[in-house]
Amino acid sequence: MLMLLVLVLAGFLGIELIRKIPSQLHTPLMSGSNAISGITIFGAIVATALDGPVSQVLAALAVAAAMANVVGGYLVTSRMLAMFSAKPKPHGKSGGAS
Fold first, then answer.
1. Which stretch of DSSP H or E encloses residue 47?
2. Which residue has the higher pLDDT, 27 or 33?
3. What is the pLDDT of residue 7?
4. Phi then psi for 50, rounded to 5 degrees?
5. 55-to-6, 13, 46, 60, 68 alpha-carbon distances in Å
6. How large is the C-alpha radius of gyration of the chain?
7. What is the pLDDT of residues 67-83, one digit of tens each?
8. Which residues, in sequence order, are CB contacts of 70 under 8 Å at separation 6+?
9. Which stretch of DSSP H or E encloses residue 56?
């Protein structure tokens, strides 16, 4: 019961922290979140070796959720970085002779 309480409180705290972060910091924080999710994936893979079907199912769900977070984080980070990269100039017809 105590672990469930910690999970719920951590969820509320995370939501409140994310709401108060300026948009300029979202990309660096997403990179940190991806690193933490990588650690979560490792721990969940190790947890799949535990005995009992319930722990194995929960560990598999943890792997799936963490992988979704990592993939989504990289996609969002890539898209945000693409917004700030220089756009290639179109090669139009020039007025000079070639």
1. helix 26-47
2. 33
3. 85
4. -70, 155
5. 19, 26, 11, 9, 20
6. 21
7. 888 888 788 778 877 87
8. 34, 37, 38, 41
9. helix 53-84
